[in-house]
C-alpha cells in the first residue's frame, strides 16, 4: 500500500528551512511517495510582521519553484499550497491570497494568540512564564475554531500546537477540542497528523490521541504532513502517524486538487 501524501513542506523562502523543492521531491521519490505538497508560510499584509515567512513580493517566486519541481519530476504528483496564519480580521487578506494562484489547498494554522506573540517561537518561550497555560490554550482553540468555521481552509495544521514546549494546563481541555472539531466537521475541514511534534520538546504527534479520537468520532477527515524544513525530514515518522490514525479507527485519508478533496485508503 502506498504512503499517504505528505502535504506539509516548506522552502528557504520562509527563512528557516533549507533545500529547494526539487530536493524535497527527490527525497520523496527515494522514499516511495507518489504525492507531496508544498505549503510554505504565506506572506502577511505587512512584510515586517515577523521573520519566519516569505515576503509578499516572493509569492510568485515560490510558485515558480514548485512548478519547476513539477516539471522535473512528472512521475511524482506535486501539489501547490500555502500554510496561512489565521488571525481574526485577516479574512480578506486570506481571500486575496486565494485568488492569486490556482492553489490545491490551504492549511490554516494558528501560531499567534495575540498579534505580538507566536506561541511556538523559541525566541519567545519566556512569554509562557507570564501567562496562565489554560488561558493560552483557550485563546488558541477559540482562534482555531474560528479558522475551521471560516471556510477559508481545507486543512487545519498542527491542531494542538501549544503543547510544543511541553507546557500543558492541568485543567481538562476536552471542551475546547469538542468545539473546534464540531466546527471542522460542519465546514468539511480536515486536520493533519503532523509528525514534527515528535521532533519538538513535546515528543508527540500533533494532535495527540485524545483530540484525534474526538475527531474520528465526529467524522473529521485527516491528512498527513511531516512539516519538513529540510529534505531529510520528508515523510519522517510517517509509520508512527499511520499507526496512530489506524489505532483510532481511521481507514481513509484525504488529499486535494484545486481545493477539491479526494479520498484514499490508508
Which tags fit this structure?
six-stranded parallel β-sheet; 10 strands; 7 helices; two-stranded antiparallel ribbon; alpha/beta; TIM Barrel
Question: What report would you give on this structure?
Answer:
The structure is a single chain. The chain has 266 residues and is α/β, with parallel strands linked by helices. The chain has a single domain, classed as Metal-dependent hydrolases (TIM Barrel, Alpha-Beta Barrel). 32% of the residues lie in helices and 18% in strands. The chain is built from 7 helices and 10 strands. A 6-stranded parallel beta sheet has the order 1-2-3-6-7-8. A two-stranded antiparallel ribbon has the order 4-5. Strand 1, helix 2 and strand 2 form a beta-alpha-beta unit. Helix 1 runs parallel beside helix 2 and helix 5 packs across helix 6. The longest helix has 17 residues. The chain is globular and about 50 Å long. The N and C termini lie close together (8 Å).
